[in-house]
Amino acid sequence: MDDFVKAAGIALVAVILSLILAKQNKDISTLLIIAVCAIIVISAMQYLHPIIDFFRKLKVIGQLDSELFGILLKAVGIGLLSEIAGMICCDSGNAALAKTLQILATAVIIWISLPMLNNLLQLIENVLEAV
Amino acid sequence: MRRILICLALTLMLSQPVFGVSIEPPIAPHSAQEYMPDEIDSFGDDLWYIITSAFSVLTPSVNEAARICVALVGITLLVSLSDHFGDSVKRVSDIIGALSMGMLLLKPVNTLLNLGIETVKQIADYGKLLLPVMTAAMAAQGSITASGALYVGTAFFSALLSSLVTTIIVPMIYVFVCLSIANCALGDKMLQSLRDFSKWSMTWALKMILYIFTGYMGITGVVSGTADAAAVKATKLAISGSVPVVGSILSDASEAILVSAGVMKSAAGVYGILTVIAIFIGPFLRIGVQYLVLKFTSAICGAFGSKRPVELINSFSGAMGLILGMTGTVCLLQLISTVCFMKGVG
Prior knowledge:
Chain A is an all-alpha fold and 131 residues long. Chain A contains 4 helices and no strands. Chain A is elongated and about 70 Å long.
């Protein structure tokens, strides 16, 4: 809770500073925002670890396929990173870059899911043969 | 002396040969024998024995269902995290989530559907052996025309239902499941409509068969009589609640079932009825556990998950319900027709 309050405070101060700096030097303002975002993401990591451990427990109890679980976890991670990076790009006035990053994230998620798609096709083939 | 001889000759001429007809029901198939009692005493006790035997071997199915429940909760949590992503990333995450849930659920659906088909075949095959025996018993008591008509009707409906199940319902369940996965992945209205239509058509087909069958039974008047009103109400409630999809129609025929149950107590073919129940009860409980656990999972995931994954879990529980309805319909059709014969036999 303390960390969250600190992070929220840092974010608000960074926004005010960025608004002031933006009038004089937009580059510095953007760099400030990137730095604060990085700090917040790093501080969020310590909370993500227990969550990932919880998902691992669910995976073990549910006997979920490691490959499938890994794909889902990576997809969420890629989605989160692309979202943060895209937002920063948008804030710095590079909407096209943000959109391109989202397309890249989509392509990467599809690419990491290819083994799962192949398994699914195999399963469908088996079912169709049985029918 | 001459009169006595004439009387004896007339007596011999007028006398009819009488045979003691021994009606032996066909032996229960291997899958049913593990639940069957060693000796048939009273219908109630033996039925209770079958039910308790079936419940005692249910633990692996419960474990399997619980495992799937936990895995589904995990996937739904992960998929729900993508709700706040940008459009294209969210779209692809939804597709990946739907496909992974589909992969997880397709295997049990396939296994249980095969189990359902096997059960339907076993019940139909056993019916083919049992009904001629019951027809012979009914005909031996003088009801030759009635037994013939009843046999023709029952055999027709039984064959119709079996072929309907294998040629239409089973492929339609696969279509329904695939449409559900596609709808969850893409969220398309057209796919949703098609999915709902496929489910409606399967339900409608099963209901129609049962309506026509119960109507036929009503017209032939084989199942008639009155049963206690409270018992009828209780049976209606139990049947409509326990068998998904077609439970409401079966509950309408509950008076017939109750009247038939009264006949069963005194009938010789109790073994046949118990065998049909023993064939059915194992798969019914296995599919039923999966159905209930999926309902429970969708309720849990509904609390935190996005709409579409929860809908997908609901659709899969609907598919389980259809398998239950399909096997339940075949079993109850066989039971009702068998007890109709038994009523004729007395």
